[in-house]
């Protein structure tokens, strides 16, 4: 195709030379626009991205993460607007946490996809680093600075490799002590949710599943704590902020009749949640994120409106709504400075993520980073349509329908169904390079948010729990039927792909419905729930059993495990996995590959020795998607 494009340009040039000035009606720029030049998938995967990582209180220093160098690193935006690279870890960084005064930062970085981050103390001006943890087979996270910038708090499972307790570390000496959690009392997955204005107290969350948690108030000096929440059933308390009065807590909660996460208040000593019933946020939609400015003056909410995320700002004391940025797509971030300006990320289906700053006082919006599109004309990219289809029991399932440019209604084309992870995840119309590549190459894509997806309330979230696991597979079957019945594709042109839990979906679909798909791609998926639960990292097991079913019910786990129906697989299968995956061990990939091959089926694989739960290095991402593109091209064309 590149050769044809070059020849076309050469012929245009020869024609102009032969006819002289009279041939000026042939516009060279128009000849470029007429050409259908589509770069290789590797070029698409080189399209950039940038996300906010930190913001000094005076508004002078802005930090962001980007994979422009090939792995996720942290950058400081210079006064001239040029990015200054601060880290150069081979596998990139996992997180970056700026101190309150902005003179220090903590960087978390792991190797080979292990997710076992070591902590580094950083000078964010120069990038100078000093490693302050040296822990093997330990996961560290939810780092929070003390208010005096002399110590940090974090969660770690170093005591028994299973339970996450809360620790405080002096960043100079490296000495640390446990401040919350014990094997006889609060155990499991604890994390830091907030630190009080005076630094004496922490709000600690403790999760028993992905859809249930409780909050505790910890006195750091004494180690005494009190439980803040009491409820029945599964309730999520998210994004709590303890106000300067030491009693009022702003947060979001879904403990209401419709199970929608809404703005609420909690008073220390009273577990009853008070929901704020006003018109600041449309009550139909969930609040995905909530934060307060450092001076507690402004509140910022990110509202999930059917997969798109809008931003809302209000004054805390008066409740007055403050203007929000005029951006349509998906917003995140929410860092604020003392001037009331907000640092945000903005991304849309046809726009790569970038960092923006919104000044609600001056009504001023400024784009701060400018992601490269690798020489690709982004006007060629396509927006999806939000559609709804009916599943087997009448449930209305939302989905995003992507169609290639110039699609003619009623034409059956190669189509891919995209299965998201989680299972409590939600497909949102972010900019996805590989999707836009597939569209420009004539494919369609449907991304359903089947029952069990987040973003639609607690009831919808629970519709696939435990014994109802296969009901979610029926939603994907209904998606395939909808595409075929509406003339978009046919069975011999229909593929499916998914990662993590979405990888299980892929294997579940080609065993439950062996004749439905012409190609399937499983990325880091579960094949055998029993071996998955036995071999996943100890700290994850209880949370996963709460979702999928316990090891004490092996009969049920067997009934939902694709490995026991591998003899039904007739769909060509590509399996992608990482050797170092701490979530879904690589043995899940090896089991299903061996079973398919033993049964005479068609299976191909790509196992990365230096990756974990998904590909992180650009060279591996390019290799993976080249293989996916070739695989779908071979079986769906």
Task: Please tell me about this protein's structure.
- Strands 29-30-32-31-33-34-35-36 form an eight-stranded mixed sheet, with helices on both faces.
- Among the domains are: 2-37, no CATH class; 382-636, Alpha/Beta hydrolase fold, catalytic domain (Rossmann fold), CATH 3.40.50.
- With 637 residues, it is α+β, with helices and mostly antiparallel strands.
- The two termini are 18 Å apart.
Largest sheet: 8 strands, mixed
Which overall shape is indicated by the principal axes computed on the Cα atoms? Answer: globular
CATH superfamily of the domain at 382-636: Alpha/Beta hydrolase fold, catalytic domain
| SS-based class | alpha+beta
Q: Quote the beta fraction.
A: 25-35%
**Helix count, per DSSP?**
12
CATH class of the domain at 382-636: Alpha Beta
- Helix percent band: 10-25%
Distance between the termini: 18 Å
